Amino acid sequence: MPFATRAFYFILLLTGGVAFAAAVVAAEDNRADGGPADTILLGGKIITLDEKNSLATALAVRDGRIVAVGDDRAVERFRGPKTQVEQLGGKTVIPGVVAAHCHAVGVARNSLTRPHAELLSVAEVQDWVRRRAKELPAGTWIRIPRTDITRMAERRHPTTAELDEACATHPVIFTAARKHALNSAGWVAVGGDAASPQVAGGRVIVDASGGPRLLAGGGSVLQKLMPRPVHAKEDVVAALRRVHTSYNAVGITSIFERAASMDDFLLYRQLRQQRQLSVRMTQTFRSRFRSAADVEAFTKRLAMKTGDGDEWVRVGPLKITVDGGIHWGNTYLREEYGARRIGFYAHDDPSYRGDVNYSAELMTEVFRAGHELGWQWCCHVTGDAGVDRVLESLAAVHATHPDIAGRRFSLTHAYFPATDSIEIASKLGVCVDTQSSLYYKDSAAIDEVYGRDWSSRFIGLGDWIRGGVTTAIAGDHMIGLDPNQSMNAYNPFLMLYVAVARKNRDGDVFGAHQKLSRLEALRCVTSHPAYLEFTERQKGSLELNKFADLAVLDRNYLTCPEEQIRQIQVEMTMLDGQVVYRRKK
Ligand SMILES: [Zn+2]
User: Fold this and answer.
1) Do 239 and 219 fall within a single domain?
2) Rounded Cα–Cα distance for residues 419 and 413 (Å)
3) What's the CA-to-centroid distance between 486 and ligand 1, angstroms?
4) Which residue of 242, 416, 436, 533 shows the fewest CB atoms closer than 10 Å?
């Protein structure tokens, strides 16, 4: 009997009209090396995502690593007297999801501050305010959960009268697009007068009848009225563990904290030391850098660099915020905002193109400085002109430091790919992490307000991927715990559905050419994000010697009707060979 055998059977699967080849791989047998497995999984449909897109039925785990993957007979050889056996009963298994963009510590703190709800119309906002008014003592501020006007049915803030209708006993505030709507009690609290308020450091935008419509600015006044609560560390830790448990319940086993502090990093280390961490975490450090010297000082304080840490708590890239966003109304575009966008965001200058925080020269300087110190970079950049400026700066660094092309620079968001920038990004080895759940929730507004050219490019997964840019899909999860209704949805199966079907909440498809195959989409939440953090040899696929991080699904991701992809439930999640989530029957 040969010690190691490997056989491939090519089969053709047809899903949603898209054909792809898949191979079934027999186990590579290294049973003799290390004795029996801790756990074996048998009788499943294991999407390994190896290079050949092999399918397997069974997998063996020892010390948190995969020691065999293949058919049941081969994996059975790893069964010993103490081996745990998991019968999969034909269920589909995918590699553990690597969520390339979340703010779990922020979510934890937020969950201690106030409740979150997804509110999609003025009527829903009013109902929520009425309920909240019954819970809070009169006079207490009611802050409406973050709701973007791109997601409101009316595509605008509620009016003062609409908020008054819901509540006259408490000051009420609704914030979106960097502008605040208030009820009359709210206007009195911030500006002394409900009819013509005066707000220090703020500008009151009036409606057609001259009454107050929205407040722009006034941040210091608001902060004084609604100070940020301070939470006890143990409460934050408990809340963070709840966030991680919610991630495990949708198959997430690794996350990127996309902007957290050194204290947060140490918190993660402490959780790991106490064996309380149910996700692996790679941290992004964000700052506003004014010079190369700033980068040097900042990284010296951290006394670490990209790749430091271990397989549980790892140092990722530095991050800067280059432009604004589509929700805030300041994404930096190649064209002027014009009348439609100006009206929508309640701006006043139609020649406005968005905000940009860095000149190309400054970005070149800070990217070069970080690169020389051994750091990877990523940047928040949403608009197409913002991406142009980042790529111009990177190209300038590349001219003197061609090795930056191997540093996997990531454009975070990059909502509107353009043909020329895709080409440059691909040449510079630039990657993208973007949010397909935003297409689900925001593309209807993008289509109305920006136009069809923009909605068909919006979250242009097909453009990026076919242009040779390694692209990760992630949620940018910030507030709330519900996988679909939080700000922003973090359910990987909703994101996969959008990537495959390119349908938004109304079922509309803008830019059908952006659709991905199911396997391409799955790579965007597993192997591609692993590539972004240089861990592709440990995660992102189910292969020999990789981490036993995986999720068992309630239906076949590859063959279920397309509409069902977003309804997929996780039956069980395994991290490092240990079950961290099992669905209650
Ligand atoms: Zn973010």
Assistant:
1) no
2) 16
3) 13
4) 242
Of residues 191, 158, 190, 153, the one with CA closest to residue 176: 158
Range of the structural domain that residue 496 is part of? 233-322+357-541
Compute the distance between CA of residue 199 and CA of residue 215 in angstroms, rounded to an integer.
8
- Same domain as 199, residue 82: no
Q: What is the CA(353)–ligand 1 centre distance, in A?
A: 22
Whole-angstrom Cα distance, residue 388 to residue 404?
17
Q: In terms of domains, do 259 and 304 share one?
A: yes
Are 175 and 487 a contacting pair, CB within 8 Å?
no
- For residue 33 the two structure tokens come to 């090396």
- CA distances to 115, 118, 563 from 151, in Å: 19, 9, 21
Q: How far is the CA of 560 from the centre of ligand 1 (A)?
A: 31
Distance 222 CA to ligand 1 centre (A): 23
- Return averaged pLDDT per consecutive 10 residues of the chain, 585 residues in all: 36 35 44 82 98 97 96 95 97 98 97 94 98 96 96 97 97 97 97 93 94 96 94 96 98 96 95 97 97 98 96 98 97 97 95 98 98 98 98 98 97 98 98 97 98 98 98 97 96 98 98 98 98 97 98 98 98 98 93
The per-residue pLDDT for 528 is: 98
Is residue 560 in a domain?
A: no
Quote the ligand 1 centre to 381 CA distance (angstroms). Answer: 11
Identify whether residues 448 and 490 lie together within a single domain.
yes
Q: Phi and psi (nearest 5°) for 442?
A: -115, -10
Please enumerate in sequence order all residues whose Cβ is within 8 A of that of 403, keeping only pairs 6 or more positions apart, or say none. Answer: none
Q: Find residue 473's DSSP bridge partners.
A: 434
CATH at residue 523:
3.20.20.140
206 is a domain residue: yes
Q: Please enumerate in sequence order all residues whose Cβ is within 8 A of that of 523, keeping only pairs 6 or more positions apart, or say none.
A: 49, 540
Q: Are residues 414 and 522 in the same domain?
A: yes
Last residue of a domain, one of 225, 254, 286: 225
Same domain assignment for residues 175 and 43: no
Q: What protein residues have CB closer than 5 angstroms to ion ligand 1?
A: 258, 476
